[in-house]
Specification:
There is one protein chain. This protein is 79% helix and 0% strand. It is mainly α and 317 residues long. The longest helix has 57 residues, at 3-59.
């Protein structure tokens, strides 16, 4: 082949491979973002999505110890859900969880907001004091439960001793059905206050001081500035904090289980403990899966309601 033919062939090959290389670069550019997130998606599929699918599938079968060992768990459709929704124990646990969640959210949000307002203006030692308050949130739930079980103990607890010391009489918090739930509420509020404070504090600091100064010049008092400036501007952050608090509190297990174990007389039998008892104490795996699925659906409804409110607020803004 002549020199002209070889050069012509290389030129033709280069012209043909040019579009192919361009397409290859474009394909890699399009695929690159998906490759970056692929490990996270695989991890999410392994630890979240697959367990949820398996749990829903289990809730539709009569899975017990006997059927698990035999490998033959018959499909029974929605029978587990019908049985669970007509079970007095489940309905009682749902009511206890609702009271527990509402009481915890109201108290920990109110106290957390008060502390966020307190720390919104720096002062000497504020960083150290704020770090000390966060310790309660950093401790594992088991540690917090054991700590407050010691504090509320009827024989050697500090709380009964202090109450008796001020002349209010002796009271066994953890063995009295009327007060055991409130002991659990106090424990969980102590855990949740730092979380609320940490998230609300940046929202408060983001509000311009000029708004407060202008309102003060116009004669607005402290309460009016809080009501008409702080609360409206803090509303998006507050809704997010409340949503996260509801989801976390409604599924609290370790704190309440270590503190009271669901007693006395099922006074603190929240839904996660009820699910645990049905699944791992009575080995009715199908019913336990149905209860946990209903718990998940309740949290999805809360998240959907939050998104609806947030979208409506953005639309009216």
């Amino acid at each position: 082949m002549s020199t002209v033919d070889r050069s012509t062939g290389r030129a033709a090959g280069s012209a043909a491979s040019g579009p192919a290389r361009l397409v290859g670069r474009r394909s890699r550019r399009v695929a690159a973002p998906y490759l970056y997130v692929a490990p996270a998606l695989i991890l999410l599929l392994a630890v979240a999505i697959y367990p949820i699918i398996y749990n829903v599938r289990t809730s539709l079968t009569d899975l017990t110890v006997g059927t698990f060992l035999s490998g033959d768990a018959p499909f029974i459709g929605l029978d587990n859900y019908t049985k669970v929704l007509s079970d007095d124990a489940f309905i009682h646990a749902a009511g206890v969880s609702l009271v527990f969640t509402v009481a915890c959210i109201v108290l920990q949000f109110t106290i957390g907001l008060a502390l966020a307002l307190f720390f919104a203006r720096p002062f000497p030692g504020s960083a150290t004091l704020r770090a000390l308050l966060i310790v309660g949130w950093l401790l594992p739930g088991v540690v917090s439960g054991n700590l407050f079980r010691f504090l509320f103990d009827g024989d050697s607890g500090v709380v009964p001793w202090a109450i008796a010391g001020v002349g209010l009489g002796e009271h066994a918090w953890l063995t009295d059905p009327d007060s055991a739930l409130w002991a659990a509420v106090i424990t969980n509020v102590w855990v949740g206050i730092p979380f609320n404070m940490i998230l609300l504090l940046p929202g408060l600091q983001a509000i311009s001081d000029e708004l407060y100064e202008a309102a003060a010049i116009d004669g607005a008092g402290a309460w009016q500035r809080f009501r008409y400036i702080t609360l409206p501007l803090l509303k998006p952050v507050a809704l997010s904090v409340i949503l996260l608090g509801v989801i976390y509190t409604f599924k609290v297990f370790d704190v309440v289980y270590v503190l009271t174990g669901g007693g006395p007389v099922d006074a603190t039998m929240v839904l996660p403990i009820e699910v645990y008892n049905v699944s791992l104490k009575f080995f009715r795996f199908g019913e336990g899966a149905a209860e946990s699925t209903l718990l998940l659906l309740a949290m999805l409804l809360v998240a959907t309601a939050y998104l609806f409110v947030q979208r409506r607020e953005e639309g009216s803004a």
